[in-house]
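Below is a filled-in request sheet from our internal design queue. Each sheet records the structural input a requester submitted and the sequence that came back. We keep these sheets so that new team members can see what a complete request looks like end to end.

REQUESTER: design group, bay 2
PRIORITY: normal
MODE: inverse folding
CHAIN LENGTH: 296
BACKBONE (tokenized):
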């Protein structure tokens, strides 16, 4: 038995993506053979377990076929010497759908995973039935200061052997708060040790270069945004601007900061479920997005 058991999690296995490598995948079968697939894409520095542990049960209760993978360099994701590129992460997700025999999915992305989800639609539009974008944006670095900060991560990636302990503590600070018990803290720290921090820091630099504003208005699938109203990592202003740019996007607001998915799941998970239901309902009805609105 693991010394860091953590919360209950779905079954997992390594899946080989031909020509790309192997990644770690959690999967929950759908209630029926034709149940829609929901593909969960986690945020920067985390992994599928850390990002979605509080959501798995609720999504299973919806009867959905749930799939979550670790992005390259994160957790037990693909290991490679190639520099991290956002488009490679999107192509990994498409390759996973191929490997699982899934024609298309409702794609749910959190933070960096939201950027990957947008690129997945852009690069593989037939694989995306709908988008749910959580605590994310169409651009992460606009000012000179922000661009310098993200660019510095690329330089740090070459020295990452001396930074992982610092990085783990920083990430743990938004995944957990001081009220969490020691077992939970140990589990988070253990999961963060799985990261290839050189790749993770390179991913941060790549995220700073991401900008979908020139094409986001072309999204032609039902979309929803789960907007974290008190987010100090991805500003609510940017989240709202992204939602406004997507035709027919519906916004579901959560009273929480960037780590609300883990620290306050009672606030986040119900809105995530509502957002997925919204996208699923519109996709099944006609595939035409509804008019923009905000739900609380």
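RETURNED SEQUENCE:
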């Amino acid at each position: 038995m693991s010394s860091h058991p953590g919360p209950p999690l779905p079954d997992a296995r390594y899946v080989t993506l031909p020509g790309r490598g192997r990644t770690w995948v959690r999967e929950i079968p759908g209630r029926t053979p034709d149940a829609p697939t929901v593909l969960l894409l986690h945020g920067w520095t985390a992994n599928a377990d850390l990002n979605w542990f509080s959501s798995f049960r609720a999504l299973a209760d919806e009867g959905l076929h749930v799939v979550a993978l670790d992005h390259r360099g994160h957790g037990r994701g693909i290991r490679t010497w190639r520099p991290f590129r956002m488009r490679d992460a999107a192509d990994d997700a498409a390759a996973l759908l191929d490997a699982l025999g899934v024609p298309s999915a409702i794609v749910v992305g959190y933070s960096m995973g939201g950027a990957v989800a947008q690129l997945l639609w852009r690069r593989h539009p037939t694989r995306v039935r709908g988008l749910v974008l959580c605590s994310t944006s169409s651009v992460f670095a606009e000012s000179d200061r922000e661009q310098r900060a993200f660019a510095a991560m690329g330089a740090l990636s070459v020295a990452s052997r001396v930074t992982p302990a610092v990085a783990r503590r920083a990430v743990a600070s938004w995944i957990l708060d001081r009220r969490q018990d020691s077992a939970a803290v140990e589990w988070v720290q253990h999961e963060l040790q799985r990261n290839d921090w050189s790749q993770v820091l390179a991913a941060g630099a790549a995220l700073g270069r991401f900008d979908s504003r020139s094409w986001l208005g072309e999204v032609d699938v039902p979309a929803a945004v789960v907007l974290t109203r008190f987010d100090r990592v991805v500003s609510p202003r940017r989240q709202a601007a992204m939602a406004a740019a997507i035709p027919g996007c519906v916004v579901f607001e959560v009273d929480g900061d960037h780590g609300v998915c883990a620290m306050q799941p009672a606030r986040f998970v119900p809105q995530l479920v509502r957002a997925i239901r919204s996208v699923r309902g519109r996709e099944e009805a006609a595939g035409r997005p509804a008019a923009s609105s905000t739900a609380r």
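SHEET NOTES:
- The beta strands are 12-17, 21-28, 37-41, 65-69, 105-110, 128-134, 223-228, 250-254, 293-295.
- Confidence is low (pLDDT under 50) at residues 288-296.
FILED BY: M.R.
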